[in-house]
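step=encode ok
step=design start
structure_in=
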């Protein structure tokens, strides 16, 4: 039986592990369930992207991006570094963000979710909400900048007076 050809390229900073089955960059990540480092390959990132989209589409309780990360035992920092490394995973991230944003907005409109909480965080899921928030903020600066001032008047409490007749109870 022939052994797999394993070789390390010592001239490069990131070593490549080559064997007869697959080739991948030797990168490790901390699995938060086992607290052990595990290798990650481009194939793994592709499969993770597919699984992320599938879970987002099928799990109606998934309301944040972190739900999947918790399920997989991944940190945000790890996932974002993988997204920068793998274009397919970044596209999956963008698609899942859209799915979750849509689900949250529908939940707010149908009153399944609290609208106050959803409104405060929708800018994280949809760029249209970012633009709407900026527009609202510009309106308030226009109103305040237009010379409109708010005057607060404090009135003294007057002593009770018998100026009005009171009804007598029979």
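sequence_out=
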């Amino acid at each position: 039986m022939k052994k797999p050809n394993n070789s390390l390229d010592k001239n490069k900073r990131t070593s490549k592990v080559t064997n007869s089955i697959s080739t991948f960059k030797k990168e490790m990540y901390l699995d938060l369930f086992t607290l052990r480092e595990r290798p990650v390959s481009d194939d793994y990132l592709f499969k993770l992207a597919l699984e992320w989209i599938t879970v987002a589409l099928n799990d109606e309780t998934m309301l944040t991006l972190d739900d999947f990360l918790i399920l997989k035992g991944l940190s945000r920092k790890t996932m974002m570094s993988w997204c920068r490394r793998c274009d397919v995973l970044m596209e999956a991230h963008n698609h899942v963000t859209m799915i979750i944003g849509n689900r949250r907005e529908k939940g707010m409109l149908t009153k399944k979710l609290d609208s106050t909480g959803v409104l405060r965080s929708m800018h994280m899921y949809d760029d249209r909400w970012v633009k709407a928030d900026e527009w609202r903020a510009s309106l308030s600066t226009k109103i305040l900048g237009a010379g409109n001032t708010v005057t607060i008047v404090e009135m003294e409490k007057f002593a009770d007076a018998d100026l009005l007749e009171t009804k007598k109870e029979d």
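step=design ok
step=annotate ok -> The radius of gyration is 29 Å.
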